[in-house]
Design a protein that fits this description.
CATH class of one domain: Mainly Beta
Order of helices and strands: HHHHEEEEEEEEEEE
CATH topology of one domain: Jelly Rolls
Oligomer: single chain
Number of strands: 11
Shape: elongated
Number of helices: 4
Structural class: alpha+beta
Length: 328
C-alpha cells in the first residue's frame, strides 16, 4: 500500500516537471519556445532602443554643457564690461565735478579781474587828469624868475613821476588781468609777485564730509604771492616749475577719510586717515613733489567714490593743514 502511494507521488512529480520544462508534449513545448524567442527578440529590440536613447541623451547633455560653458564665459565678459563701464562713469563724474568746481572758480576770478581792470582804468584816468592839470599849471605860471624856477623844478619832478606811473599803467598788459583770473592774485600789491609759498589750516571741525568734497583750509598762516584762495581751498601756480605740496588731516575716533591731492583734474597724491579701532583721533600726512605749469590749480579733496566715516577734526590742539611752496 505504501509502495503504491510512493509510485503515485513520483508519477505526479514527473508530470509536473514535464509541464514546467515543456516536456508534456511536442506542440506545447514548441509554442513555449516560440514565445520565449519572441520575448527575447522584444527584449533585444528594447535594449537597442534604450542604447539609442542613451546615445541621444548623451549628445543632448553634451550640447547643454557646451551652451552652459558659453553662457558662463559670456556672462563673465558682460560683467567685466559693466565693471569697466562703471569705472569710466565714475571717472567721468569725477572730472565733471572738477570742471564744475574749476568753472565756478574761474567765474569768480573773472569778476575780480573785471573789478580790478575797472579800478586800473579809473586810476589811469585820474593820473592823466592830474598830469594835464600840472602841465596847464606849468604853462600858466607867471611868477618871478627864482620862484618860477623853483616851481618849474617841482612841477617837473611831479610831472616825471606821473608820467612814469602813467607809462606803467599803459604798458601793463591786459594779460595781467587774465593772469589774475588763473593765479588768484588779488588787487592789493604783494612784495613777491612771482614767488609762491603758502600754509593754511581748517579753523573748525568739518561735519559735512561727503564724496568729492574740496576741503577749504580757511585760515591762512603764510601766503607769499597771494596765490592760495582760502574761500575755494585752491592754490594757483604763478609760474612753471617744481612744487612741493603737503596736507595733513585729522579724523575722529572710529572714522576714516580718503583724500586726494589734485592738479587740475589729475590725481597726483592720495592718502587714508584711518582711526578705526583707535581710542583717540588719528592723523596722516601726504607729501607730493610735482611739476606744474603756470595757471594750474591745486587742491585737496575727499575721494569721489569711496565712502567716509566720521568728521574732519581741527582745533587749537591739532590742525588739519595744507601747505605748498615752489622748489625750483
Amino acid at each position: 500500500m505504501a509502495t503504491l502511494k510512493t509510485i503515485a507521488i513520483v508519477v505526479v512529480l514527473i508530470h509536473f516537471v514535464l509541464d514546467v520544462y515543456c516536456l508534456s508534449s511536442d506542440d506545447t513545448c514548441r509554442e513555449r519556445l516560440d514565445n520565449l524567442e519572441k520575448l527575447l527578440a522584444n527584449l533585444n529590440d528594447k535594449f537597442e532602443n534604450h542604447q539609442t536613447d542613451n546615445t541621444k541623451v548623451d549628445a543632448m547633455f553634451k550640447v547643454i554643457q557646451d551652451e552652459n560653458s558659453y553662457l558662463k564665459s559670456r556672462l563673465k565678459s558682460l560683467e567685466e564690461i559693466v565693471l569697466t563701464s562703471n569705472r569710466r562713469t565714475e571717472k567721468l563724474e569725477a572730472k565733471i565735478a572738477d570742471l564744475d568746481s574749476l568753472n565756478w572758480f574761474l567765474k569768480s576770478r573773472l569778476t575780480t579781474t573785471n573789478t580790478n581792470y575797472s579800478f586800473d582804468e579809473k586810476y589811469s584816468s585820474t593820473l592823466f587828469g592830474n598830469l594835464k592839470t600840472y602841465e596847464s599849471h606849468k604853462e600858466n605860471t607867471t611868477t618871478g624868475p627864482s620862484t618860477t624856477h623853483g616851481n618849474e623844478t617841482k612841477i617837473q619832478r611831479q610831472t616825471t613821476m606821473l608820467k612814469r606811473k602813467t607809462n606803467q599803467l599803459e604798458k601793463k598788459p591786459r594779460a595781467s588781468n587774465e593772469k589774475r583770473l588763473l593765479t588768484g592774485i588779488q588787487s592789493t600789491s604783494t612784495p613777491f609777485p612771482d614767488e609762491a609759498a603758502f600754509s593754511a589750516y581748517v579753523s573748525v571741525h568739518e561735519t559735512d564730509i561727503s564724496k568729492d568734497f574740496t576741503i577749504h583750509f580757511d585760515t591762512i598762516v603764510t601766503n607769499i604771492g597771494n596765490h592760495y584762495n582760502k574761500h575755494t581751498g585752491i592754490f594757483t601756480t604763478p609760474q612753471h616749475g617744481v612744487y612741493v605740496f603737503t596736507w595733513n588731516l585729522y579724523c575722529n575716533t572710529g572714522g576714516y577719510i580718503f583724500s586726494q591731492l589734485v592738479v587740475n583734474s589729475n590725481v597726483v597724491g592720495a592718502m587714508l586717515t584711518d582711526a578705526v579701532g583707535a581710542t583717540d583721533i588719528r592723523s596722516a600726512t601726504g607729501t607730493v613733489v610735482v611739476e606744474v605749469n603756470q595757471g594750474d590749480v591745486v587742491f585737496v579733496r575727499t575721494h569721489p567714490t569711496n565712502s567716509h566715516v566720521g568728521n574732519l577734526r581741527s582745533n587749537s590742539a591739532w590742525r588739519s593743514s595744507f601747505n605748498g611752496w615752489k622748489l625750483y
